[in-house]
């Protein structure tokens, strides 16, 4: 199965922002930001997601918005981040979003009590 991906000039900011507005999709993009190609199963494992059917929808949204490349390889699909295309189209956008997500994680880690902690 060949997937359809938008050309670089067809990537629209509203589609990218909508795709990255989902915490699950944003987490998947953060995994893919490490570079290279990742098979779907390895990304699911990192995310702690077991429902492949749910992720199929998320992959489609990310692919259709131009955020990821997805290609079949045997019985698996390989995923990679379209960082170069996104940076060319919207310089700094993806980096700012990923940095903001990382900063939000740090704030949550500091402000939320640890599991089992006793609050006063």
UniProtKB/TrEMBL annotation:
InterPro entries: HTH_ArsR_DNA-bd_dom, WH-like_DNA-bd_sf, WH_DNA-bd_sf. Residues 5-101 form the HTH arsR-type domain. GO terms for molecular function: DNA-binding transcription factor activity. This is ArsR family transcriptional regulator. It comes from Pseudonocardia cypriaca.
């Amino acid at each position: 199965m060949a997937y359809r991906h938008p050309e670089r000039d067809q990537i629209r900011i509203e589609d990218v922002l909508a795709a990255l507005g989902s915490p699950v999709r944003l987490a998947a993009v953060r995994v893919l930001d490490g570079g290279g190609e990742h098979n779907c199963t390895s990304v699911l494992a990192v995310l702690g997601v077991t429902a492949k059917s749910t992720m199929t929808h998320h992959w489609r949204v990310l692919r259709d918005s131009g955020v990821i490349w997805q290609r079949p390889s045997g019985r698996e699909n390989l995923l990679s981040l379209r960082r170069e295309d996104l940076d060319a189209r919207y310089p700094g956008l993806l980096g700012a979003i990923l940095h903001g997500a990382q900063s939000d994680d740090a704030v949550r880690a500091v402000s939320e009590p640890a599991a089992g902690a006793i609050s006063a």
